[in-house]
What we know:
Blueprint: H1 16-19, H2 26-39, H3 49-62, H4 64-68, E1 79-85, E2 93-99, E3 107-108, E4 114-120, E5 122-130, E6 140-149, E7 153-156, E8 161-167, E9 172-178, E10 187-190, E11 195-198
Helix pairs in contact: 2-3
Amino acid sequence: MVTAIGQCHICPTPREWDLLETPYYFYRFLTEVEDSLKQAPPGQQCDGLPILRQLVRKLVLNSYWLRTQRPVISQSMTAAILNLYDEMGYPLTVQIETLVPGVLSPIHNHGTWGIVAVLQGQAQNTLWRRAPEPDFPDKIVCVTEKIVEYGDIISFVPEAIHCVQAIGEEPLVTFNLYGETQGQQRFEFDPISHQAKHY
Length: 199
């Protein structure tokens, strides 16, 4: 789990055989995620990240359907997103994203909690933290790097700042689950000019 100050804490991983459930359909996953979020006190959804990570791991482990979903990506594209569920008023983003090798995302936060499961390839996450100064209130500094690969799950609190690069020789494919984005709190950061803009 990545914190607001750019630290990456290793979390316990449940035993796979404790998560086996066949069939485990996508609608069951969405229902269990929604039920888990409803149990969290208002403003404290990040406290439920361990349960949500476990649900994501359960889905990846049991759902052949999920592992076969891929966004269509042409030779001229460097990234593509496949939205798996989109309903008016539904407070989550559920998608699969593909990045071609070498692609580097902007430095950003998400303005909400997020969970990313690697379905294929490797990702290098560079983690940052805010380091405001009087003249540069949006200054950030690099804290560390974390490589995640097939089978890994990484989660973020809303204030966590990172950038992602697809490394290795095959495309990076991830399953992404995000909470309801607070647009006013989502930023892209420039570490050279020390500026931030809405992302």
